[in-house]
Amino acid sequence: MTIEAIQYHTRHFSKRLSGSVIDSIIIHDTGGKTAEGTLKWFDNEISKVSSHYLIDKDGTLYECVPVEEKAWHAGTSTLFGKDNVNDFSIGIELVDDNDADKYPKDQIAKLIDLCTELALSHHISLNRIVGHEHIAPGRKVDPGKDFPWYEFLVTIGANLY
Questions:
Q1: In the chain, where are the structural domains located?
Q2: Of 40-54, 56-70, 95-109, 111-125, which range is least confident?
Q3: Distance of CA 31 to the CA centre of its chain
């Protein structure tokens, strides 16, 4: 299965280190109300941030940085003792401006489809699909307490195995 995405490439990315193996997916939330606002922020000269994918509340998927390149989504981060998570991960942003509203079903369904496809194509295990809060504890809290981790991971696990 190939996930269709709107191509919206940002200038904020760099080459992955030679020999880097993509083995993780990091889930973020935008902290903003719209996909358009997030895409404009990705393009803003001063932001210096990006992600590989952005998923709008209605499930619309944008590809902002090709996965072969390094998006700038994780900042100072560590996963299983390995620093610089941008070097070996795929970043996915979800439009979500606060933790008061649940993530919409269409958005979560698209995220599950995308993560399943990425996990299969890059041999990413479930324990390496994590939130920004897990790689930068104390600094970041997204995707937040409203993210349905249990249902999300169980569904991906069922799709993979």
A1: 6-160
A2: 95-109
A3: 13
* CA-based end-to-end distance of the chain: 16
Helix H or strand E encompassing 15: strand 13-15
Structure tokens at 41: 């922020």
Q: Does the reported pTM lie above 0.85?
A: yes
User: How far, in Å, CA of 37 to CA of 94, rounded?
Assistant: 12
Task: Identify the active-site residue in 68, 93, 117, 133.
Answer: 93
DSSP result, 27-96: EEE-SSS-HHHHHHHHH-TTT----SEEE-TT--EEE-S-TTEEES-S-S-EETTEE-GGGGEEEEEE--
Measured distance CA(102)–CA(125) in Å, rounded: 26
CATH class of 6-160: alpha beta
User: Does residue 117 sit in helix, strand or coil?
Assistant: helix
pLDDT given at position 1: 59
Taking only the tens place, the pLDDT of each residue in 33-60 is 999 999 999 999 999 999 999 999 999 9
To the query of whether residue 93 is one of the catalytic residues in this protein, the response is yes
Q: Which residues contact 73 (CB under 8 A, 6 or more apart)?
A: 26, 28, 49, 50, 51, 52, 86, 89, 91, 93, 132
Length of the chain measured in residues: 161
